[in-house]
Amino acid sequence: MNARVRQPVHSPQHAASYYAASVNRQLDFPPLAGEVQADVCIVGGGFSGLNTAIELAERGFSVALLEAHQVGWGASGRNGGQLIRGVGHDLDQFSGVIGSDGVRELKLLGLEAVEIVRRRIEHFAIDCDLTWGYCDLANTPRDFAGFLEDREELRELGYRHELRVLKAEEMHQVVGSDNYVGGMIDMGSGHLHPLNLVLGEAAAAQSLGVRLFEHSPVTRIDYGPEVRVHSAQGLVRAKHLVLACNAYLNDLNPQLGGKVLPAGSYVIATEPLGAARARSLIPQNMALCDQRVALDYYRLSADHRLLFGGACHYSGRDPKDIAAYMRPKMLKVFPQLEDVRIDFQWGGMIGIGANRLPQIGRLDDQPNVYYAQAYAGHGLNATHLAGRLLAEAITGQESRGFDLFAQVPHITFPGGKYLRSPLLALGMLWYRIKERFGHTNPL
């Protein structure tokens, strides 16, 4: 079923996005009140928390999940909706820690992550406009050469989906723009409506017996063999704790908070363009993404809008007018949209770690406390993988994937809470300068 746009009926706490205006279900969970006992307490009602809850409930564990706002309030309900294979960036850099076999396993897990999303949507019949087809866009000949290498590696890994490299003269098959020197089609990746997916997964978790509590920010955690998680009006006692807050962890756990940088990402949605005009922009209705440090990503919605996102901000300050900031970027790709109205504009925080690998593990000094964060823009699939790996670890299943992620060390960003964003913004400016002169090597 296609998304239906109407006047938002959501709480003011949800971002005023196209997604919030086109939700296909309304959920309402109570705040935590009184005392609750569970095998596992999860903090965070996004993809990471919900999928960990689903995986645990399917294994017979009792779960209580606390969300400070509404389910899907953060990046899970605001992101670009691109479901793309892979986890991390430049996984070969970790061979000295986990070996070449470990790196290969991470690459395979990056393919499995998309399949977890596919199967979850199918199993629970979640209506979220899932559409298959994605194209990486080459900005430079170097990008294009990288696609040829990627294709061969994916084939060697046994990737079962169609991969096709396009030269510059073939690019109008997938995008109505002259900006690119080539591309690579991947029919095993695609796009969807993320807020409808996260709401569907919340309903699935509830159907499995997970107790969900909204508007329940955690005020204090007492660590120990039994973890006690406090909110303003309630308490959860649990054997295990999962922190799944990502960029919205704030000061809840300074040890983890220092290893993830909240970075702003922004999306605009045009007015409905009509089927013909929309398909002139993206003829095969694929998700698309370029290769720059400050990348552009875009796709069509079910009602034929262009959703255009990117412009990752490390400064900690959002643009005053997101549409005014993003529209020129859109017009550089699609100058033919000069006459088009922007109907929606929104932003949110994604979590980025210094090495761009998702951080999945447990606290060294608290072995019953687990975490998942810092997906660096690949959160839609990596969160679902994290949920499975965390559940395997908590339930005592053998989990080579969890052990691999947990082995990789993650540095704390320098500068503390107030200086780490400005320092990284300066670093990213340097990489953009290098990129402009043909020497791309992003963090």
List the helices and strands and how they pair.
Layout: H1 18-21, E1 34-43, H2 47-58, E2 63-66, E3 82-83, H3 95-123, E4 131-138, H4 141-156, E5 163-167, E6 182-191, H5 194-207, E7 211-213, E8 218-222, E9 227-231, E10 234-243, H6 254-257, E11 261-270, H7 275-281, E12 287-289, E13 296-300, E14 306-313, H8 322-333, E15 342-352, E16 359-363, E17 366-373, H9 379-394, H10 400-407, H11 416-436
Parallel strand pairs: 1-2, 1-10, 2-7, 4-12, 10-17
Antiparallel strand pairs: 3-6, 4-6, 5-6, 8-9, 9-10, 11-14, 11-15, 12-13, 13-14, 16-17
Q: What attributes does this structure have?
A:
single chain, about 450 residues, alpha/beta, FAD/NAD(P)-binding domain, D-Amino Acid Oxidase, Chain A, domain 2, 9-stranded mixed beta sheet, 11 helices, about 30% helix, about 25% strand, disordered C terminus, oxidoreductase
What does this structure look like?
With 443 residues, the chain is of the alpha/beta class. It has two domains: 186 residues, FAD/NAD(P)-binding domain (3-Layer(bba) Sandwich); 144 residues, D-Amino Acid Oxidase, Chain A, domain 2 (2-Layer Sandwich), CATH 3.30.9. Helices cover 32% and strands 25% of the residues. It has eleven helices and 17 strands. Strands 3, 4, 5, 6, 11, 12, 13, 14 and 15 form a nine-stranded mixed sheet that branches. Strands 1, 2, 7, 8, 9, 10, 16 and 17 form an eight-stranded mixed sheet that branches. A hairpin with a 2-residue loop joins strand 16 and strand 17. The longest helix is centred in the N-terminal third of the chain and has 29 residues.
